[in-house]
Amino acid sequence: MATAxxxxxxxxxxxxxxxxxxxxxxxVSIMPRGQKDNSINWVEVPTHCVLVETDEGKVxxxxxxxxxxxxxxxPTGLQEFFPYDKVADxxxxxxxxxxxxxxxxxxxxxxxSHLHFDHxxxxxxxxxxxxxxxxxxxxxEFALNFEGDFNGAHLKADYEGLNWETVSGDTxxxxxxxxxxxxxxxxxxxxxxxxxPDSGTMIFTSDAVYMGESYGPPAAPAxxxxxxxxxxxxxxxxxxxxxxxxxxxxxxxxxxxxxELRKAPEGSYT
Length: 270
Known about the structure:
This protein has helices spanning 69-72, 78-81, 93-100, 137-143, 156-159, 212-215, 228-245, 255-260, and strands at 6-18, 42-54, 57-61, 109-111, 132-136, 150-151, 154-155, 164-167, 171-174, 177-181, 190-196, 200-206, 248-251. The protein is α/β, with parallel strands linked by helices. Strands 1-2-3-4-5-8 form a six-stranded mixed sheet. A five-stranded mixed sheet has the order 9-10-11-12-13, with helices on one face. Residues 46-253 form the Metallo-beta-lactamase domain.
C-alpha cells in the first residue's frame, strides 16, 4: 500500500460561536424546559490546515480564515456569529507556513474540503503560484453559480477568479492521500484519508464531522447542514472506513482534540 511520508497539522487559532451551530444534542445544546433560562453556550471553534508530504509532491488541506476576516465577512454578518478572535499574528496560515520553512511555491496541491469562509479564507494566497487548486465538482458548481456575493457561509470573494480543478467520487490524488466524498454539510464537502508508515491511517473529516461529540455513536448533527440525510450517510461512511483501517479521526473543529494532537511547527506524524 502506498503511503505518504509526513503529515503536519497546522493550528490557525480559533473562532467563537454558539455551540448550537456545531452540535444539536439533547442536554448539551438542546435544553429541556427546566433549563430554558440558561445563557447560550459560547464555545471555542478551532481552525486548522494540514500539510502532507509525499514522494510525488506536497498537498495543503484547507486554508483556514483570512487575517482581514472582520472586513471581508462584514457583508455576510458572519463576523457577529463566528468571530475569528482567538488568533495571534503568528497563527495565520501564511505565518505558520513561514515558521515551518515552507514556501508557497513548494506546495503542489491545495485541496479545499469545501468552500466555506473558514476553510477557503486564504485560497487567494495561491492565485499566482503553481499549486493546483482542487475541490469537488459539486462544490464548485454550487459555489460559483448562486446569485449575489454570498450564500450562507460561501463567500465568493474567497474563491472567485481562481482556476479550480475538480474531483468526483473518492480519489487518490497522491501516494497515500485519498479524498473522500462526504456531502451533507455542503453539497460537495470532502474528507481526507492519509496513510502513513508509522502513524497508520488518519482521517481528516473537515466539517463532515465537527467534533468527537458529533461523531458519537449515535451521530449528532449541527445547525449548519445542507442535507441531513446525506450528512448521516457520510458520517456512517467515514465510520466504516475507520473500522476497516483503524484510523485516527481528526475532527473539523474540536477544541479539546486539537490540544491533544501533535502540531506544527514542532510536531508531525510519519
